[in-house]
């Protein structure tokens, strides 16, 4: 009996870990992770910027290839990078809220603290760009009931991904390319980070792969149009 009870407890805990850690679970919060379509289109997203060194390099590649992207920015990185943030907008890209602190403790925040954090990031983004912020991506991709309540209150559309490159772990670029190719599907959202070293060179390899596979990179708002997907 004790073994059965323990097994039940472990199963329940495993479910809640899965529900929080897997952004595609949809248990607590509806997250747009991929568009249901047969069209070979994909959206590129970058987290954790803006970065004074790497973000301009990424923007150079996007400009040269005429590729749109969405940058989910950390609020405490905006001060001092206002010009860079305006460049992102001026060059036709979009931005989203990735929290102000991006603290490892963010998923443990209470409702009021979490709301203050997201609102602070939103205010910084809007102060610089003069544009409303409608998209949000959870730090670390973790969701929970508190976040769901906060997102409902702030009326954000939460954006996830179906291709996580794990580029922050700095694996060999060939390994990242293989990972992307394995998971590539029509309507995908690709998660990258613009602040890591050589992010621009990795982006070039990814764009070459997408072109070879016959994919067209579209803006996030284009991907969000028509039929929503989980």
How would you sum up this structure, described in words?
- With 230 residues, the protein is of the alpha/beta class.
- The chain has one domain: Alpha-Beta Barrel (TIM Barrel).
- It is 43% helix and 13% strand.
- It is built from eight helices and eight strands, in the order H-E-H-E-H-E-H-E-H-E-E-H-E-H-E-H.
- The strands form two sheets. Strands 1, 2, 3, 6, 7 and 8 form a six-stranded parallel beta sheet that branches. Strands 4-5 form a two-stranded parallel ribbon.
- The longest helix has 20 residues.
- The chain is globular, with a radius of gyration of 18 Å.
- It starts with a helix and ends in a 6-residue tail after the last helix.
Characteristic terms for this protein:
230 residues, alpha/beta, TIM Barrel, 6-stranded parallel sheet, two-stranded parallel sheet
Parts with pLDDT < 50 across at least 5 consecutive residues: 12-16
Mean pLDDT: 92
What global shape is seen? globular
For the record, the count of structural domains works out to 1
Number of strands: 8
Please state the structural category: alpha/beta
SSE pattern, N- to C-terminal: HEHEHEHEHEEHEHEH
Helical stretch count?
Answer: 8
CATH architecture: Alpha-Beta Barrel
Q: Might you state the CATH topology name?
A: TIM Barrel
The proportion of strand residues reads 5-15%
Task: Identify the CATH homologous superfamily.
Answer: Glycoside hydrolase/deacetylase
């Amino acid at each position: 009996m004790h073994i059965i009870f323990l097994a039940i407890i472990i199963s329940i805990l495993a479910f809640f870990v899965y529900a929080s850690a897997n952004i595609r679970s949809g248990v607590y919060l509806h997250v747009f992770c991929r568009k249901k379509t047969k069209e070979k289109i994909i959206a590129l997203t970058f987290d954790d910027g803006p970065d004074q060194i790497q973000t301009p390099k990424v923007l150079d590649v996007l400009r040269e290839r005429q590729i749109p992207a969405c940058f989910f920015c950390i609020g405490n990185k905006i001060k001092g990078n206002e010009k860079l943030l305006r460049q992102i907008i001026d060059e036709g890209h979009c931005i989203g809220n990735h929290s102000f602190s991006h603290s490892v403790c963010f998923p443990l925040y209470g409702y009021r603290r979490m709301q203050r954090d997201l609102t602070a990031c939103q205010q910084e983004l809007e102060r610089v760009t003069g544009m409303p912020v409608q998209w949000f991506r959870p730090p670390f991709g973790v969701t929970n009931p508190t976040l769901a309540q906060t997102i409902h209150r702030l009326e954000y559309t939460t954006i996830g991904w179906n291709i996580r490159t794990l580029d922050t772990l700095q694996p060999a670029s060939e390994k990242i390319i293989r990972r992307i190719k394995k998971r590539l599907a029509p309507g995908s959202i690709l998660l990258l980070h613009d602040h890591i070293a050589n992010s621009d060179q990795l982006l070039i390899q990814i764009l070459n792969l997408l072109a070879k596979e016959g994919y067209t990179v579209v803006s996030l708002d284009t991907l969000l149009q028509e039929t929503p997907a989980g």
